[in-house]
Amino acid sequence: MNKMLCLCLTLGGFSACSQPEAVDVRLNQVGYYPRQEKVAVVDGGRVDRFTVVDVATGTEVFSGTPAYTAFNSWSPKERTVLDFSGLQTPGKYLLKIDGGEAEFEVKDGALSPLADAALKSFYYQRTGMPIEAQYAGMWSRPAGHPDTHVMIHPSAAGPVRKAGDIISSPKGWYDAGDYNKYIVNSGYSIGLMQAVYRLFPDYFAKQDINIPESGNRTPDLLDEMHYNLSWMLTMQDPADGGVYHKLTTPSFEAFIKPTECKQQRYVVQKSVTAALDFAASLAQASQLFVAYEEDYPGFARQALEAARRAYDWAVTHPDALYKQEELNRQYDPDVSTGAYGDRSARDEFFWAASELYYVTGDRKYRDKAVECAPDAYSAPSWGSTSPLGCFVWLLPARKLDEADRAFADRLESLLLAYADQSVKGADQSAFHAPYGDEERDFFWGCLSEQGANQATSLVYAYLLSGNKDYLANAYRNMDYILGRNATGYCYVTGFGSKSPMHPHHRLSAADDVAEPLPGFLVGGPNAGQQDGAAYPSSLPDESYADEVNSYASNEIAINWSAGLVALSSALDALSGQL
Ligand code: 9MR
Ligand code: 9MR
After folding, report:
1. What is the pLDDT of residue 23?
2. Does the beta carbon of 182 lie inside 6 Å of ligand 1?
3. Are 158 and 297 within one domain?
4. For the whole model, what pTM was predicted?
5. Residue 173's beta-bridge partner residues?
6. Can you tell me the mean pLDDT for 343-360?
7. Which of 55, 129, 296, 350 has the highest local Cβ count within 10 Å?
8. Element containing residue 97 per DSSP (H, E)
9. For the segment 554-571, what is each residue's pLDDT rounded down to a tens digit?
10. DSSP E strand stretches across 98-248
């Protein structure tokens, strides 16, 4: 029966025949590698058969019957899974079912433009320099906040720098849709990208994303990291090595251009989490930049020195957690911007100590790492950095002595237990991916923090074990992010046939270009719906609004972009192993 023609008679509340639902085909809208598993999902309906037609010739090249039908207990929708992995010839195709169709592409390097754009998104977030047309095309703009007259907030005063003093703290990236700069999120974002850089240095050595530094000898990824790392260095109080938690206006700016912003900017309270994320990411950078002295003379040494001092400060201030409400009770002006608060710095200690031990070999860092080691693995996020510490111990190329090997083996078993749990049942799930099958998968920033970062964890699990099931499932999460999902959005700006047009992003909203800045992964469906925007549905995986005021589902952020850089680069680098 053709569902489009089915007439529905509702008799006493009972539906006499199946509902004539809109049948929709959901698939990866960016592209599949020739040897990758290829799966599409029919949303809200059953089909008996599907065909694939070559767009150029109109010829049918594949046909099949559904693999299985599945649903989630927390959604009334039924999903039917179609597998066309047998199609391996590069080309543009149309997948057709009774009542719907969707276009897709099979090509070598399928994710390479996405990996480039994800890294390039950081260039667009640069604060203190003009974003020029030769790199940014129609998204060129004048320099944003110079941050050369930043005030010491009373919470940040010390023996030398007094409240109201002015310091210079230029460069760095805007954090997200807002214009502030936060150390915790900066350190975490850089840490995740530099971790994946360590896995695939040859991949990144070849990458060219057309930024001002592309012509130098340093890989573009490290050039981009350097722009923010050099800001981070200015956030360390020279008097004691402590690190300011953030550089911010008291309240969020309106949706205006950076050049129209008038509010005074402050550095606010030194915190233990800021010090440790700073120490970890700068220690990691100190190792990676040694090879690029020519472009960045003295930087590697300076980064390590700063990292050691920040770590020492953290050891003497272990309880200096950032608590914005308490701070507002004590000081003026009140600060209402992003808090990046935390209840425990144990995972930050583990990460920072792990990096510093790897880079220096100093036993005091090893002891701390062992003391603060996690007892379970979960995907990394800005507030949960122990996985980044695990990545340091689990670098496939790292040489370890016997005792360290035993410690690393323990961490590896935690990661592999997590990986096994993640992939369990994924091949029979509604969207045929580990991500998206649980109600709890849909929270603020979930697409990156769970969708991408679970997959990047699976990439590590694959590299350590050789188990290809982990790798296949990492690609599946990417398919989810790129369109095989409940809303049918490809959640990266500028990619796919249906992608966000109105992200909660001041730079995109306040420019004079209709298209948002490209290469950004939005936060994604969020059952919390904390922003009061007009959501199309209350179902967790459909709680997404492509509206500029939906900061709980449609903002962009550097930590989420970092997750996209990490995953898309890793999957592109590993595509030869499919
Ligand atoms: O724009 C802000 C965004 O970057 C934050 O993630 C979000 C949550 O802290 O807040 C946004 O700002 C909103 C504020 O919280 C409430 N008033 C409306 C603001 C958006 O214009
Ligand atoms: O990513 C953060 C998320 O985990 C929190 O739930 C949310 C609300 O506190 O804040 C997110 O971070 C925002 C930050 O505070 C300010 N810049 C925008 C960030 C992304 O929304």
Report:
1. 74
2. no
3. yes
4. 0.96
5. 126
6. 98
7. 350
8. strand 91-97
9. 999 999 999 999 999 999
10. 100-106, 150-152, 166-167, 181-182, 244-248
Q: Which amino acids are annotated catalytic?
A: 178, 504, 546, 555
Flag whether pLDDT at 322 surpasses 60: yes
Tokens standing for residue 53: 């037609």
CATH code assigned at 26: 2.60.40.10
Both 237 and 265 in one domain: the answer is: yes
The SS3 of residue 103 is strand
Residue 175 Cβ inside 6 Å of ligand 1? The answer reads no
Q: Kindly state if the Cβ of 555 falls inside 6 Å of ligand 2.
A: yes
**Residue that the structure tokens 């509902």 belong to:** 19
Query: 7: domain range?
Result: 3-106
Q: Do 154 and 7 have their domain in common?
A: no
Closest CA to 228 of 182, 184, 266, 171: 171
Residues 322 and 363 occupy one common structural domain: no
- Written as six digits, the tokens of 358 are 């790897």
Q: What is the rounded CA–CA span in Å between residue 486 and residue 449?
A: 18
**Ligand 1 in reach of 178 Cβ (< 6 A):** yes
Tokens of 379: 């995907």
Residue 297: CATH number of its domain: 1.50.10.10
Domain tally, the chain: 3
Examine the domain organization and report whether 332 and 359 are in the same domain.
no
* Torsion sign, CA atoms 50, 56, 61, 67: negative
551 domain-assigned: no
Does residue 291 sit in helix, strand or coil? Answer: helix
Q: Give the residue, out of 182, 183, 185, 522, with the most ligand 2 atoms within 8 A of its beta carbon, to mutate for a pocket test.
A: 185
- Assess whether 392 and 331 both reside in one domain: no
Give me ligand 2 centre to Cα 278, in Å: 19
Distance from the CA of 252 to the center of ligand 1, in angstroms?
A: 7
